[in-house]
Design brief:
With 625 residues, this protein is α+β, with helices and mostly antiparallel strands. It folds into three domains: 53 residues; 190 residues, Penicillin-binding protein 2a (Domain 2) (Alpha-Beta Complex); 320 residues, Beta-lactamase. It is 38% helix and 20% strand. The protein is built from 22 helices and 23 strands. Strands 2, 3, 4, 5, 10, 18 and 19 form a seven-stranded mixed sheet that branches. It has a five-stranded antiparallel sheet with strand order 12-11-23-22-21, sandwiched between helices. Strand 2 and strand 3 form a beta hairpin. Helix 10 runs antiparallel to helix 22. The protein is elongated.
Amino acid sequence: MERLFEDCRSYLVLQLRSDSVLEDYYKSRVIVFSAIVCVFILALLIRLWNLQLIKGESYDDLAIENRIRLLRLPPPRGEILDRNGNPLAENIPSFTLSIIPGAIKELPELVKSYSEPLGYTPEKMRSIIEKSFSSPKFMPFAIKKNLSMEEVSTLKSLPLQSKCVSLNVRPIRRYPFGDLFCHVIGSTGEISGSELEKFGRVGYRPGDLVGKTGIEKEYETYLRGEEGWEQIEIDAKGRRLASLTRRPAKPGSNILLAMDASFQKFVEDVFTERAGSVVVVDPDTGKILAMVSKPGFDPNIFSASISEKDWKSLNSDPLRPLENRSIRGLYPPGSTIKPVTAFAALSEGLIKPDTQFICPGELELGGQVYRCWNQHGHGKVDLLTALVESCDVYFYELGLRLGADTMAHYASLFGLGKPTGLELSQELPGLIPTNFWKERNYGTFIKDGENVTIAIGQGYTLTTPVQLAMMTAALANGGNVMRPFLVEQIRSPDGSVIFDQNPVVRLRIRHDKQDWALIRKAMRDVVESRSGTGRRCRVPGLNISAKTGTSQVISTREKAKPEDDVPYHERTHAMFVAFVDDQPRKVAVVVVIEHGGGGGKIAAPMARKIICRYYGLPDPGEPKD
């Protein structure tokens, strides 16, 4: 009985122990599970806290970006006008189809839908789109620019409001007068990589148009304007729902030139030669009234996007139509510089007005013969006759007495050998040789044989047409070398004047009144005298003063050949400078004809027509007496 009782008690103890172990087991499982749940809940709370409090603002921005899109509004470029308000450069709308690379979902469908309306093969369309993948994902990438109205009409029938495709309009330049003002106004084009680095901080973007040459480039900051923007709300499919906020673009300022379009056109029509330049200036102010450089180009071909064919054609043309000869054409001035040489000799006291030299038609110096244009000679001549008949031998004698450095000093007083200060920054300075220059470049000094050629505007001497125009203007206005200018006013879009040009005197030439009067009389007789070389510029009743010039292209000491027997590129340049100073409105004119022959024969009649047009007089034609 006791044994049975012990067994029962042992069984009960074991049963209780097993129940306790089982309870502990389940308790540990519950604790582990509860810990896992707590960790999960804690992680979830941390994640929610991170999303809502830490990154909540950025996710709000992303949500807004998916709902709101910011569009750039390019500013209309300011217009360029002539002095009468006629537009010389204006704006017209241009349409561009663009894609957003990061939003493209179905590339094959995109290629299929848009290749034919754009005139592309599917392969070319795919190639263009694939190029966009290297650009920023959400930056619009132009697929085709300057769409025709027919293309625009076709594209509008397609689902253009998808997320990745948009049809945008932007203003581009139009030049109503074509090549008439091409070298003055210049042209625009898409901003280059180097320009973007330079201007990127002031609001420029890839694809923006900027001035490349001429007034368009020099006054870019005024013409540019200020871009605007518009916030629009879109739906999940990219369709525009509403405009939220908008800041309109501010147009650029308008530039008013001192030039008149009708007068410029007349001067262009008068200049019928292949290449050269005409500059017409107001002597008292320095105002450029006309500036022609031939040949020219149509700047409209640059406004959209110049084709490779057109670019190659312009750059391979031997006559260099892109070159502005008025400021960059370097020409020996020839005899047009003789009034300066005469002024130097008189001012230095080396000659008097009645000093005479004998011209036998040539001057022998150091075993070399330097010929006069008149191979028969002028005989005994004084300064007045030498200027009127353009006797070379007389000025050879002056060159020997003056020397290069003295001639350079007086040439610099007239503004030669340095930029005139015109707004166009690509202006070349020309060259007035000195002994220092010759020694630095050639290791020797200027010789007597070179002094005689410098005296008649040949040899190393190089000038630009605009420099000759300001030299001539100084002779007309009494010795003030003015700074020339093209822009007369700048006006804000509301019409208020923000800049008004004032005449600027760069140099004042001190002179003896009698010496000055003698040179001016001689230049008057160049036109009025029967023996004057500029007689073809004569207009009865109008006092025109002038000087002819014929500048050599290649050095030669042979007797002159008939012009028709000389190859075009070896023919002399025809030069002519003239002014009228006894009218209420003064004027100075320079005509340079490349390889045109004699200045008095070819250039003088052009100057006569221009002067007659300026004063509203009929052209009398060639003198008959």
